[in-house]
Write a structure and sequence with these properties.
With 283 residues, the chain is an alpha/beta fold. It contains 11 helices and 13 strands. The strands form 3 sheets. It has a 6-stranded mixed β-sheet, with helices on both faces. It has a 4-stranded parallel β-sheet with strand order 2-1-6-7, with helices on both faces.
């Protein structure tokens, strides 16, 4: 039986133990801060990134891995006759999956490399990657793995709160006028990503809005508590508050596995300080 290997990008939310245990290959994105380049999770940690982001004169820039990096990665992984399933962050957020596709075509391995747009990122992308890696280790076929990944993708939920719109404004994600108004009124926004497209789900003012957002997410988890096995909580710079949120989920159902971790630079750059996301899927 042909071996199947799993590849993803560094915007994914995985633990080092998961990466090692399931033999996952992570291709890093590149970050530029005030003209200096860093390789994500290689020569800059997520905590260091947030510190440098806050001190930077300009908004950091994130870049997808080069086609050349993907060429080498795919050549190495397929050299023993293996197939590859490569699951990447949403095309709407990055050109990573397109760079990977070009690399597969250049090395003549398009038939052996299956590319999947996770339509999300972070732990939601991680859920798909882990499912694929576990299935691959269990000896399942490519069709079986893809069916499993697609099933997870169809039931995933992203609930994201942006409390400081400064980075969204600086990055041009909000028009100048709406940005100024939002700042003056202490506006916060809740985001969602149906079908891989980032959308504003709701707008509101201050901590009261965030509290209502939190309560709504917890109510949905309560409603589906026996059909949710895992929850990812990702944040920019609020570990204690997010751990408290995780504790509330555990009160709802102690059997739900909750991973609380800092988010990746590509998310932190645009979401800014205080942002957080709760990600899960319903079985």
């Amino acid at each position: 039986m042909t071996k199947i290997k799993v590849v993803t990008d560094s915007s994914v939310q995985l633990t080092s133990q998961e990466i090692e245990k399931y033999g996952i290959t992570v291709v890093p994105l590149t970050i530029t801060i005030d003209g200096k380049n860093y390789v994500d999770e290689v020569d800059i940690t997520r905590a260091d990134f947030v510190k440098k982001m806050n001190e930077a004169a300009e908004l950091p820039k994130t870049s997808q891995p080069s086609i050349g990096v993907f060429e080498k990665t795919f050549k190495d992984l397929t050299s023993d006759g293996s197939q590859v399933i490569a699951i990447f962050l949403a095309r709407s957020l990055s050109g990573t999956i397109d760079a990977a596709r070009q690399a597969a075509e250049i090395i003549g391995k398009s038939d052996d490399i299956v590319l999947v747009d996770s339509e999300l990122t972070d732990r939601a992308e991680g859920f798909q990657v882990l499912a694929a890696a576990k299935d691959a280790q269990a000896g399942k076929s490519m069709d079986e793995i893809l069916a499993h990944v697609n099933k997870i993708k169809q039931s995933q939920k992203l609930n994201m709160m942006v409390v400081d719109l400064k980075n969204l404004i600086r990055g041009g994600r909000l028009g100048a006028l709406s940005g100024r108004i939002a700042t003056l009124l202490n506006i916060r926004i809740a985001l969602k990503m149906p079908g891989g497209k980032l959308e504003v789900a709701k707008k509101g003012r201050g901590k009261k809005f965030s509290k209502a957002f939190d309560e709504k997410v917890l109510a949905d988890i309560e409603k589906n508590k026996d059909r949710i096995k895992e929850v990812g909580i990702s944040y920019v710079d609020t570990p204690e508050v997010m751990q408290e949120f995780a504790d509330k989920i555990k009160e709802i159902n102690p059997n739900i596995d909750v991973l609380v971790k800092e988010t990746s630079p590509i998310i932190a750059t645009h979401a800014g300080n205080g942002a957080y996301a709760i990600l899960y899927y319903v079985e």
